[in-house]
User: Fold these one by one.
Assistant:
Number 1:
Amino acid sequence: MRAEEAAARVSLWRGRPLSISPLSGGLTNENYLVELEGTKYVMRLPGKSTELLSIDRENEVFNTIAAASTGIGPRVLEHVPGVDVMVLEFIPGPTMSAKTLQSPRMMARMAQSFHRLHAAPRFLHDFNMFRLIDQYLRIVDENGVPIPDGYRDWLPNVGQIERAVGVAGLVEVPCHNDLLCENFIDDGAALRIVDYELSGNNDPCFDLGNTAQEAEFDQEMRATLCEAYFGNRDPRQLARMNLFALMSDVGWTLWGAIQARISTVDFDFRAYYTGRWERALGVLRSDRVDRWMTEASN
């Protein structure tokens, strides 16, 4: 069993009796709950061929340690080089969902967590969704990965969006960049944030917009999150949040398409990426994008 072989490499508990059970929810990696003499740990193993997703494991470990220094990320208790096994602090508390995050109180708590994360020591590498799309398209071409028909027809629009969000770009800070609702855990004191494999220094509005998309926030909820983070409903930054939310769907469509080709995880990645692309198309074909680009540029 792969988990048992990995656990045998960890010095923290070598030679001691363990209980190992899989943790659900991961779409890229394998996560396990390890119990030892009443203490719980999370053991994280990299998924198959994740280098094709432009995931840098050195970056992930470095950034996870940096995020932990803020009290928002889980502590890294051990990292086994070469096999990239990470042993992380187990965070007790409920895992969040779109439903549990859709309240002004939770948005205020999310904003507090973002402020702490965004004040972390600088992450190892930068993250830029527009450049990641370029990388993913190269991977798609090199590996014959099917993507939605007409995807490339919208790349000129993506270029316009990149220029618009750059007009009032904010100073890049340590960002998570992949804020699935399940990556928030409520420990009772704070909303902790886990899973830093796509983390990097980025415009903080990307984290806000990405969260808004993953948690299915409507425009009023997005404005509430904007106010909680910035202190006011800044029209320019709200527009940038909306554009980054859209770019989350555009970019993660390619991520899902690549995963559909390489992943061994039992998950319908084809339905995932087609759903994201259909949602993106609904916005791209509307008049909202032009309005947001104008507001972001003013």
Number 2:
Amino acid sequence: MSDAPTLETELARARDLSVSELADAIESIGFECTRCGACCTGHESADSETREPHTATVFPDEVRALQAAASGAGDEPSDDASDGDAAESYDWRDVARPMPYGITEGEDGPHGETFEWAIQTDACGDCVFYEENDDWGEEPGLGACRVHEDRPLICRTYPFSVALGGTSQPMGEAVDEAGMVRAHECEGLGRDISRADAEELAAALKERAVRELEEAIGVRDNYSPVDTEGVVVYDSEGPKRADGSPIRDAE
């Protein structure tokens, strides 16, 4: 019989996390974003022969927030948007894609089940909202996010995570830790960070841990297998198709 803590136990621990103590840990590790773009772009696979796409988890409500933010910013949706108002608004698929784990390519297209959404990527495997500022008159090659003020929690808190079961770990192995905080591969680690910035980051890190565990509990409680073709994403709101539409409501 497993003695692993339940999701509810971990959620209680997440809610009890001290923002001040998390900020202390972040200060001791040190961090400053260098805008290198590594956390927003695809990367080489372990065999160095293929390029793996950027993969970052996003909550259903964050997808809708990104849709609104991108549409309000006047960005052009991708060419495969199916919404009739594609020229004015972002389709769900312009913002998010099913997490690839559990999805396979078949003769009739992708199929399978997965339990999370990932931010959409472009043809190069980079986050669809990432761009470099080569034409902005700044230092060439600096990265920028077109929806920076509305970016998801996993983006706000990279390269950190908390050591709680049921929470997501960002790309890259943990290379440092202090207390409950883990630091993942990033060239900005070890740099000075102000107390105010550390506390802001710590608050977002706590919020993300709570949200991840609430999402995991919601997925578990609302999970009910469906028999349908193609891809099914089971999130905290119930089963959805790859375009974000609820399956039960449409059948």
